[in-house]
Specification:
- The protein is of the alpha+beta class and 325 residues long.
- It folds into two domains: 29-100, Leucine-rich Repeat Variant (Alpha Horseshoe); 105-307, outer membrane lipoprotein receptor (LolB), chain A (Clam).
- It has helices at 29-38, 44-57, 62-67, 74-102, 178-185, 196-199, 237-241, 302-307; strands spanning 106-114, 117-125, 131-140, 143-152, 155-160, 171-177, 202-204, 208-212, 215-224, 247-253, 259-265, 270-280, 297-301.
- The longest helix is centred in the N-terminal third of the chain and has 29 residues, at 74-102.
């Protein structure tokens, strides 16, 4: 049972990656108009520089970019669509983050399909991202297990509920200090139902609208940002599987801008993530987020495992198929 190692959290991708779209600077309308005009400049370097400046301008450039959507220049239309997609994704994410931050309690369902691996989870959490309970079932072929993951504000605990124990051995409980997770990842832990970090790994075209079942959604399609490397986001499972030609397709609920569905295609691997039945302002008992390892268990510190080179994604515990080998 000493070989009870974590593989990854196949359901939660919560590393916060700061967006390139900021509002630190507020250019004038004349500056923005000049940059939009430069998108059609004969000099490639000038066109690129203009796009970079418009990215930094963010929502302030939305009106001018919308007016440029009907340009006769194919490249201008392409750049404008990409820029408007970036602005829209920020608006969606900020709206969802605001709803989460104001909630007293959040509850929802998640499902992840990664090739032959399927994980289903029920999540209850507080908006701080550090207090949560995740009851999940993971299945790959004939291998299936159930696990409870608890964040008590300081520590993440992982308890494989149906863990088989050989005679003379103890059931294993995993733990990982939240502070060490945040230090390693360089960003605070996010709410388990908040997927903003991995959403921001991609550059999107302007959103379209459609029906997803009975739900009205915005759809964003995009490609991986240039220069993305897995080492830049050590806690993100998605960052470890994506490649330069990876594509993403996102579905956001129009009602509250929550991410409803994410599809990622790396060319070799297909990842599907769905978040549904999300309910805000749930009354959650604080005792729900308490965890004390039973006396007959052995606690494995994943922080120590990480120091020895074992890869730990986001601090969420999931057993690897190497159990008992």
């Amino acid at each position: 049972m000493k070989s009870f190692l974590i593989f990854c959290s196949a359901i939660i991708f919560v590393l916060h990656v700061p967006s390139a779209y900021t509002e630190d600077s507020k250019p004038s309308a004349d500056q923005i108009a000049a940059w939009v005009k430069q998108l059609a400049d004969d000099d490639f370097a000038v066109r690129n520089a203009a796009e970079v400046n418009l990215v930094k301008a963010g929502a302030a450039a939305e009106k001018a970019l919308t007016a440029a959507k009907e340009s006769k220049d194919v490249e201008v239309r392409m750049r404008v669509s990409r820029l408007l997609g970036g602005i829209k994704i920020e608006q969606m994410l900020k709206a969802a983050e605001t709803a989460m931050s104001k909630a007293t309690g959040i509850e929802g369902e998640m499902i992840v399909v990664l090739d032959e691996l399927t994980v289903r989870a029920h999540v209850k959490s507080l908006p701080d991202g550090k207090h949560f309970v995740i009851d999940e079932t993971m299945q790959r072929g004939n291998f299936k297990n159930t696990m409870r993951i608890v964040g008590d504000g300081e520590t993440v605990w992982g308890d494989m509920v149906d863990q088989s124990v050989a005679p003379g051995q103890k059931r294993v409980i995993q733990k990982h200090a939240i502070a060490s997770i945040e230090k390693r990842n360089g960003e605070p832990i996010r709410n388990p139902l908040d997927q903003a970090g991995d959403v921001r790994l991609f550059v999107y075209n302007e959103p379209t609208e459609m029906k997803l079942g009975d739900e009205d959604v915005f759809v964003l399609e995009g490609t991986l940002k240039k220069g993305v490397t897995k080492e830049q986001r050590p806690g993100s499972f998605v960052a470890w599987i994506v490649k330069s030609d990876s594509t993403a397709r996102l579905y956001f609920l129009k009602s509250n801008m929550m991410l409803r569905k994410m599809e990622i295609d790396t060319g070799e691997t297909r990842l599907l993530l769905e978040v549904y039945n999300v309910r805000f302002d749930k009354s959650l008992d604080s005792k729900l987020f308490e965890f004390t390892p039973p006396a007959d268990t052995e606690v494995i510190d994943l922080g120590e495992s990480a120091k020895k080179g074992t890869r730990v994604f986001d601090g969420w515990a999931l057993p690897h198929s190497r159990i008992n080998r």
